[in-house]
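Project standup — Tuesday

K.O.: blocked on the structure for the chain from last sprint. Re-posting the sequence here as requested.
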Amino acid sequence: MAPSASHGRSQSSVPLLPYADNTPPSSPASRSFAPRYIPYFAPKRRLVLTACLSLAAIALVSISFSTLASHEQTLSMPVSESPPPSLDVDVSSPVVDEPPPADEPIPEEELEEELDYSPFVLGPPTQSFRDNLRNDTKYITSWISAGWTNDIMTYANLIYLGSVTDRVPVVGMFTPSHIGGDVPPILFGEVFDVPRFNRESGIQIVEWYEVKDPESEVVDDLGCWNVWEAVQFNEHNPRGSSVPDWLKLDISYTKAPNWVKLIPDYPHDLCSTFWSLARLSFPEERAKNIGSPLPSPVHNASLDPDEHMLCFDYLYYACAQQSTDLEHDYAPTWRYVLRHLHWTENIEMIAGLYVRQIFGLPVTAELPPYIAIHVRHGDFANWCWAAEQPEDCFAPLSVIARRVREVQEELRERKGVDIPMTRVIITSDEKDPAWWDEVAALGWRTVDHDAAGTVAAFGRWYPVILDAAIQSGALGFVGTDRSTYSIVSRRRVESWHDGATRMVLWGYKGADDH
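H.V.: unblocked you, prediction finished:
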């Protein structure tokens, strides 16, 4: 079944940010749930990562990043023989919560059994996902349908909703949006360190490849809730996504009740709330709202929402209290989920090598403190209706530089760290060469993925991933207001490094005056 979707993927750049307190429940206490295993394809995965890291180290030693003042210099990077990351490359998973006492070693035969698969499924991935679900465990899943950062936020909402409903989140892959539909998906655990997340968050997640064999030809029927039609009034269908097609799932949807919407009958806010959605995961509310499912597209099966594998079509717009949750310090999806989603060691190593080369340092040098900037223009120009002239919409570089100086000053005062302008890395989708000439005059650095051969070496997913990883490693950050990419990078710098951050306002002339 070819991946397809009836709904065009929304742009993650659209500056409308409806996102999304409870302590996550502990994992099941029985010995059989002890999170002590290596994922199913771990040996293959480790070999692939080792090869990739070796290639990265060798290749990046030869790269000579320069300031934009000399950006015409061609950068050299050998091309890897390895294919881009895809669904046949596996990921890591769980944790080590309570290691056994030293005087009570685990029997070797028991250890071998536990190392084969996730403790939250019955065994290695099966042809039909239902054959791998535990009878003593309930699950929750959902799909993505936007740009990459918004998809991260969607999966974070899924994971948080799993924690408040006492269900194990089953997380899918990332599917391409801005990088071209012909690019294969990339596994969630290819990007984020799942074992570390499980260990630090206390929430145990499973990836779909651990449940159902990615090579399976079995099309499974599944009943799901249609939230999309309950929170907006323009599209009279569930939110489309290619993920069910990749997973070979045939979905029968039931429209969620209108009371899941945060602001009833208000067309300009699309939020549902976590606890209204959680109501549908329990028997009493479920029983009151089932009975009118839509037939599935392949098997024409009419199924009520599943009780064992609870399923929602789209959770990007789930929130706790307001659509801009993630911009505020109370945001539960940040506190309990996103702040624990660290990059894999693979990505952190490659990003670190890039930063060293950007600053002309040896690959073995300690990473210096630096400031990262993310400037989003592009299709944000569609939201410049308040600007009298098109050129008045975005903040000029002089305004961005003022924000950088504010970050520098805060870091000097609060941490005693002095970061010069030559330790600033900027990423942007701006295409104007004159704008980049101004950047060069400020002494700021950047990474040219085309010249560096990032796609050839690692695949088309990696430019956007590495940019985010480089930003998150900074001690200071200046971002673009209303950009989800900037918002998540800002939160990472603040949470992971106690860093200094600023967001540049835009939309009309003088928007960021202060």
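K.O.: great, moving the ticket to review. The two ends are 55 Å apart (CA to CA). The mean pLDDT is 83.
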